[in-house]
Amino acid sequence: MADLSSAPVPPVGPEDHVRGEGGEGLIVYADLGCPHCAAAWTEIAARPGLIAFRHFPVASKHPRSPALHAAAEAAAAQGEFFAMVDSLYADRGHVDDPHLWERAERLGLDLERFERDRRSPEVAARVRRDFKSGIRAGVTSTPAVFP
Amino acid sequence: MITAGTPAPDFTLRDQDGEEVSLTDFKGGKVLLVFYPFDFSPVCSDQLSLYQEVKPEIEAKGVTVLGVSVDSPYAHKAFQEKLGIDTALLSDFEPKGAVAAAYGSYLDGLGFANRTLVLVDEEGTVAWAHESPSPGEFPGANVIFDALA
Question: Domain-by-domain residue ranges, chain B?
Fold first, then answer.
């Protein structure tokens, strides 16, 4: 069983979802179902320098969050992680499965692969890994931003 | 706040379904008491939602999680349903806050418990306790796992 006791925020690594480079990098634990995250994302994403996005879905607050994070991770498998994140934060009113399929098509993703990937245990484990690192770092709400 | 090494005060409170729950029901196992101010308050909602996410990992360590506030069982039921959580919520309703007071968590004059975590061991002794600096902030779940390590 994974240890969830206190630990520093892991440094940005090769498995992180990273946008930009250089500058004063930020690590962002965010929930794709969270309205505060959506509001903050516009500002965060426009910021120069490296941004590492880490999954922190809290399902009991935002019931669709697990599905949204899985969708983003499935998009990542086709090179479109941040495009999916941007899309989900830009339009929070369309987050049911058919809407996710529409988004995937708009992004030019292979829909069958997207559908398979987003339901895979590997994707769930990848999301959970970020979540656990956030728990260990003491994240209690989102967005949580670390320099 | 109650301190480690103190016998945990026993109690019998009604849960969100109106069923009586006593601390002694859990003797032989560990119990994490989560005292919190109010159902439906923003911070309490965040706290219980977050702990729900790691409840399987807490339970895997042989710990039962019990939320405690001064709200009624009916409010607890509605709160539990709103959040979609299955943590048992106990009603410290009458005499108001008596259990919180026994654990040194009740805020006199404010009428509710401060945000306090109390870990009771298998023998019914307080193994660890943590009180938030204010009701407006809550400890991350990592703090719970530090105590369970």
Answer: 30-148
Question: What CATH fold (topology level) applies to the domain A18-146?
Answer: Glutaredoxin (3.40.30)
A82: its two tokens: 């941040």
CB nearest to B140's CB, from A1, A63, A140? A140
Can you count the helices (H) and strands (E) in chain A?
Answer: 6, 4
CB B146 within 8 A of CB B117: no
This prediction has a pTM of 0.93
Burial of residue B34, with CB atoms counted within 10 A of its CB: 0-12 exposed, 13-18 middle, 19 or more buried: buried
Catalytic residue status for B49: no
Which residues of chain A fall short of a pLDDT of 70? 1-2
Give the separation between CA B132 and CA A83, rounded to whole angstroms: 39
User: Which CATH number applies to B30-148?
Assistant: 3.40.30.10
Q: What ipTM is given for this predicted complex? A: 0.91
